[in-house]
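Exercise 7. Given the components listed, write out the predicted structure of the assembled complex. Treat all entries as one system.
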Amino acid sequence: MFSYQPPLKDIRFVLSELLDASATLSQLPTYAEVDDELTMQVAEEAGRFASEVLFPLNAVGDREGCRYENGAVTTPPGFADAYRQFQEAGWPALACDPNYGGQGLPNTLNSVLYEMLSSCNHAWTMYPGLLHGAYACLHKHASEELKQRYLPRIVSGEWLATMCLTESQAGSDLGLLRTRAVPQDDGSVRITGSKIFISGGEQDITENIVHLVLARLPDAPAGSKGISLFLVPKYLPEGDGLGKRNAVACTGLEHKMGIHGSATSSLQFDEAVGWLVGEPNRGLAAMFVMMNAARLAVGIQGLGSAETAYQNSLAYAQERLQMRAAVRPAQRRGEPADPIVMHPAMQRLLMNQRAYVEGFRMLAYHSALALDMAEQHPDAQVRADMDAQLALLTPIIKSMMTDQGFYGSSQALQIYGGHGFITETGIEQYLRDSRIAMIYEGTNEIQAVDLLLRKILADSGQRLNQLLGQVEATAEQEGKGPMQGHAEGLATLAREIRDRVERIAAAAQANPELPHQVAPEMLRLVGHCVIAWFWLRAAAVARKNAFQDPIFYQAKQDTARYYYDFILPETTQQLQIVDNVLRSAAEGRPLPLLSDVMRQYAEPED
Amino acid sequence: MFSYQPPLKDIRFVLSELLDASATLSQLPTYAEVDDELTMQVAEEAGRFASEVLFPLNAVGDREGCRYENGAVTTPPGFADAYRQFQEAGWPALACDPNYGGQGLPNTLNSVLYEMLSSCNHAWTMYPGLLHGAYACLHKHASEELKQRYLPRIVSGEWLATMCLTESQAGSDLGLLRTRAVPQDDGSVRITGSKIFISGGEQDITENIVHLVLARLPDAPAGSKGISLFLVPKYLPEGDGLGKRNAVACTGLEHKMGIHGSATSSLQFDEAVGWLVGEPNRGLAAMFVMMNAARLAVGIQGLGSAETAYQNSLAYAQERLQMRAAVRPAQRRGEPADPIVMHPAMQRLLMNQRAYVEGFRMLAYHSALALDMAEQHPDAQVRADMDAQLALLTPIIKSMMTDQGFYGSSQALQIYGGHGFITETGIEQYLRDSRIAMIYEGTNEIQAVDLLLRKILADSGQRLNQLLGQVEATAEQEGKGPMQGHAEGLATLAREIRDRVERIAAAAQANPELPHQVAPEMLRLVGHCVIAWFWLRAAAVARKNAFQDPIFYQAKQDTARYYYDFILPETTQQLQIVDNVLRSAAEGRPLPLLSDVMRQYAEPED
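Answer.
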């Protein structure tokens, strides 16, 4: 039976033992009340809601999907009711400003919540998934009037929100978008244009929807510097209630590989009433507040999928009896077959999943904590440092965690064998649902370019060196213990990364395409370095606390070793690819990619 | 628009220029008539059938699926008609013995046919996909009487065939199967039991179905040594027609992640009439004839999926305009955006796909040719050598090609961005359909164990060394040309593999689980070594023939370099993992996998 157990023990390990999150949080004035007890209480309640309310709706949502008729959308049975429970429990307000009705708890706890929601029901989680980003964006950029009118409804979850970015000709490249906004005398605008791929663009869950729409003002500059952000409600608020319906219509839903329960809508704006958020032509910057939060959230979706896939494949591997293990304990020698978890091939697939899931959980919560500090720390330098670190970690989180959501689900499916391919088993839905996360909120290819070009090379590696310095400090600290070999490996990796960044920066002068060619490798190199850093710290903590629970902490140390012995070697591959590209460039014969196809775009030869 | 162009130019390159297949085949007495013209004529006709008849049915089959009602199965609209055309054109008989109505053409041509069928419609191809294996199995093991009665109908494709192996408790481990066969006085048996996951177990395409069923005779030894193979027709033949319906009933169809058009049936045998094929209790050996053919065919399915995914993502990348390229030719500088194929991130995804697809095509056709030689060569030593090589190549083909069918489809989907996740685009079906091939006909994990334990370690590396010797000869031959660096890299890799095999064999004495732990790495090491061997040869041929078509042959040489620079580095990762495992074992502290979970199976401590 497919199921979900909230991984509270590991969450406690990460938050309390590894990161000492409560101590950090309670030093921030806003979160002075936060302690371990509160943290774990929230985690337990979130786990209960996710596993008891959302998980049972997951297969239903996949099977029934959303229905579209005459502009109206019906979400799968149970989705709206689950949302009502979510709202009544106050979850939307968790990490929001008390001035607008929020509970004023840290982002860190919101991350714990969203990991579990995503683990249980990716499609459902899409509906409230943009709430916090919309909240953050409006909180920072909207006028006080707009805030007063909309924020309390968003914070309470009474109204859901969308991000209306994509148009059919403008996906990764928002500079190409064509939706227009015409200012009116009353300070509002009229929005006209078509948007696609709008998650929750229409639904029957909340009575109103707040669309955040990118569009162009008249005479705006071409490209991404001419985009502004607008707030466009489905119904115009009137007094405390709703006034007339705005001119935004849902024209259809997409049929998708996965997340069938999420209403992926096409929207038509036809002189819809809206209001500018932030500065004219600075819409991308305003939206980026939302997008960065969304990228962390999407990474956490990947973690959530990977966790459920891992849990279930581990349980199945203990139930399913096939073949005799290579080494059999005496008491099993009469049995016709052993649980497949006894076969090293299955153990490898399981340990791979575990090492990534637990490694990513450390990274995710560390980053959420960094976000809390970046937002709330009294010391401006600390805020800036945390911002700088998040700038590096965000593309890694978005890309590597969503990759693992998908590949981890695929590894889990493999453990189920033929049964994994059957719908009713449950795992194949995770594979289909998780696939989208590698694409939306900036494809994983764009994340790699973002990391190497905009986050590393753009400041000559300063932010990166600061992070690597912390990694090296840990490596030195652990350099004499039982993890000595691994600590040395980590220090070497950090050095190799510094070296390649310098060489890539130098080579890019003559060959501007070169950094783009090796961006995927550099993302995984830095990502593995960071995860290896956490595993080294986790092993140290586990060693220290081993007496409390020898089995758990021994497994933690073994998983750290597994990560170093079986997963980190991927970095040798990436280093060699980077070196091959650098060598070819140095020899003056860079490899032309798709030479036959690219001829059509080449300069005509004279 | 999703589409398919038969890759005839590359097929000709591989068969005619790289492998000189006609020359090899025409030296075999059976295939004396085969020449390049005949070969390409067959390829062209196969490509026409696949692209014109099958490809248009692919999305329909996915959408409509198979329907089950009261024991009867309705396949998707058009499937039965397409099969009639397939049969009338004589395709089932292509590589069969003329004594039973076959056309007597080589397996090599059958592989070309099945690559294209799989490219166009994986689900449909499942129906005739087992014909050739069933033919080969019966041809080798059945009594002359059974052959006379059944083979002509199978060869002509009038009746389709199934492999009835899996039971709910017996998947990878057929030794656990429970279906019983009770001998009758007339020499027949009565079969009773339940089978699941039977592809084409029931359908409305052919009037009769020939089931090849694994079952146990009374008093058979336990486990896999007590399994016999039986032929069980859906209708009992009578004279030239059909007699009464046999007691085999379809009890349902599975709902699956993909290949919706393939009827994955549960079958109930209830004292069904059958006949023994081959020796009692030697059913697995007889079935293995079918299974080895099926594993090559499944590998080719992966190649077929990967080819279509590659073609379409390449076409889309040239159509879709997003962002400005890092380097822009003068004539594009006024354009708001460039085709995404100009972005290195997309080029990497495309070159990866291309290097694998073209590399695997060389491996697939080489192996099909080896199969023809193994079957038909007059010299027994050549036959034995070819058999030995196929024993090594089969698990590599099955595993690496099906991995790429799936991961390649995923890379292609990524190029489509959000549009790739939408059903009507077409690519997501390839991802879903191709996933099963990593599981059926022996999971890819089982292939790895098969290669390392049964094919390499079992004969102390003899077969492997013979293959590596050929690789090294090519490396030496190309060692002074422009591929010198790559030739040296290939020779080094071959040496490293020999060395690791020796060390694994030595370490396995004390630690029998060790080879199982590193089997996945060893499979990909040997696999990459073989593909790199082909790429070295392909580059040499392309260089020689460059004057004929400079663009095509330059691209071929570039792709060879891409393979060496960007893909082969994966082997450094695998070598390091193997080394880590060997080192831990040598230090007497092998890493326990899942130590916490495995405690329950450990010997009780005294």
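Discussion: The two ends of chain B are 69 Å apart (CA to CA). Chain B has a mean pLDDT of 96.
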